[in-house]
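Let us work through a complete example step by step.
Step 1: write down the sequence.
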Amino acid sequence: MILEFKNIKKTYSQGTKELNVLNGLNFQIDQAKSIAVLGKSGSGKSTFLSLGSGLDKPDSGEIIIHNQSIVDMTENELAVFRAKNIGIIFQHFHLMQNLTAFENIILPLEIVGISEAKEKTLEALKKVELDHRMNHFPHQLSGGEKQRVAIARAIVTKPNIIFADEPSGNLDSETGQKVMELLFDLVKDIKTTLVLVTHDIDLSKKCDEVYYLKDHRLEK
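Step 2: predict the structure and record it as tokens.
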């Protein structure tokens, strides 16, 4: 087992009201599995991803990744743990605009001081077929190229788990399909786990398992 949610609760304040997003969520996934999480807008998909990737913390409960609880980690501990164990791919890429494609990808390797960082960055660039664009800045890249840089950044450390939040949602259908085929191939290549948050039912069918987030819980 690579990821486990134990009795997770998460609420947000909206003025004087409390919005209950997740309530008693229990979930687990095995290593090297790909799962899709579907749900209506506002069902808590992005919250689920933020909690699982350590970008946010639950109000109560425990989240275990690779046999380590991440809930009580300090920000510094979490940053290092994330760089080593977690890859994240966002719908809007979230690349550093003042860094080249190469510099964006090498960043997580430098955070944890992994050796041969340059060689591993070049390898990741070649896997996404962008080594010829390595010195280009994000504003010089197309949407599909930006997402391939984001994928390379997510896989460069060969993490235990990759979270992808609507990774093709900001691309046209043809580009999105090519990017997703690339992502699935790379996930299999490095034998990592993929948690894909999506609204695309056809895309979800490419995963090993499909879950629906409704009534604050995940169901098959």
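Step 3: interpret the result. The longest helix spans residues 173-189.
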